[in-house]
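hey so i finally got around to running the thing on that chain from the lab meeting. sorry it took forever, my laptop kept dying and i had to restart like 3 times. anyway pasting the input first so we r on the same page abt which one it is
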Amino acid sequence: MAENKNQNNNAQVPEQDTNSLRQIRIDKLHALQGAGKDPFQVMTATQTAKSMEIKNNYEDFEDKEVSVCGRMIARRIMGKSSFAQLQDREGNIQLYVARDDLGQDDYQAFKKAWDIGDLLEVSGKVFKTKTGEISVHATKAKLISKSLLPLPEKYHGLKDADTRYRQRYVDLIVNPEVKETFIKRSKIITSVRKTMDDFGYIEVETPVLNTIAGGASARPFITHHNALDIDMYMRIATELPLKRLIVGGMERVYEIGRIFRNEGMDAKHNPEFTTIEFYEAYTDYNGMMDRTEAIIRNAALAANGTTKVTYKGVDMDLGEPFARLTMAEAVKQYTGIDFEEFACDREKALEVAKEKHVEVEPGKDSWGEILVAFYDEFVEENLQQPTFIIDYPVEVSVLTKRKPSKPYLTERFELFICGAEYANAYSELNDPLDQVERFKHQIELREAGDDEAELMDEDFIRALEYGMPPTGGCGIGIDRLVMLLTGNDSIRDVLLFPTMKPEVK
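ok and heres what got predicted. didnt touch it at all, straight out
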């Protein structure tokens, strides 16, 4: 079986045919090696310009000698001359390859021994074809790596999601928009860092392995440290170590890093994901709202050059101030029930829950927990425009300072866009005695079977007893922010290597 020398790409073929094509390419490789032209012995290659650099600055490159490197993704052979498409990180550029320029031997190698997917180094002059396409007229061409497997066919591409995520390397080759997503992801993270640096924050690193899983209500991954002979937890948040640094006088700190939670997987959740958490002394959750808006606004500009975004059919301007609603106000808006009218009245809350058919979990039936159940049932999915939901009940806010005017509530917010949570922030609880009582309540929940309840962190209590200043803290999901700014609906589309089940052989 021979590969079609004129096709733009190789068709996605059954495994048996793929094996045959692979063997053909291996035979070509062996022939090249026998002729002393082993592409895998090439140690370096010269790249003086990239595809889009040439295309965007043609006047500067016209008739100039360049050396381009990349993957041959298409080829059209026409006797003594041929055209090919070379793909590099930035895009594609056309090559004009002729026998009279390369010489008989190299041109024959280009036609017969080289394949779609091979990596090349090509030198030549930049020109425009009669049809106006900017191209490189090749005077030298060298095979610098051999592709032994055929790429998916151009027009059908790599569409199966499972295969795309498992073989991200192929996905990046054949689906240019995928590469663009991850280039934007890099720009977003760079922008976040710049915003934090401009605000005077210090970037730090905290442990991934901990003896206590704290800072969030989540199920951790557990591993074992052989030398110490103790179980350890992959971090579920960076909150508690960062707040220790506030106690130590660092005043403004942040960390961008991986978080690990042993929970379900869906379009919004992956077992490992990236967040930024940041903490600032001498401010509160209002200050965190301002910081959050700035981070998201600047990230949008870095990724797309505009703060205007359309996501899931919703038009929004991330440069405008975000709406702010208390949780009770939001529930009243969507249900007509004002929980503030019967604040802390558990029996009344149970009564309205029964009337509205809101399911209340045993052991989670306080006034505040029922308010949250109403919010989850009737409100969250309706929050399409960027909205800060503020003032959460104390029962669901273990590490948050109470609201002075309403001590049954806390100074906490979550940011919602298109019905999904993007940020979670507090006026941080700095009263060590109150914090102990909150931890004790979490222990009771854990003993009752809630394995996501927080553990007592005695060292964190000790740190608070040395004195932590009034502090605002916030966590933002980087992956969801990238989804928003790149128009992707699944977290797997913004993770280069999402978690997958092992392949079944």
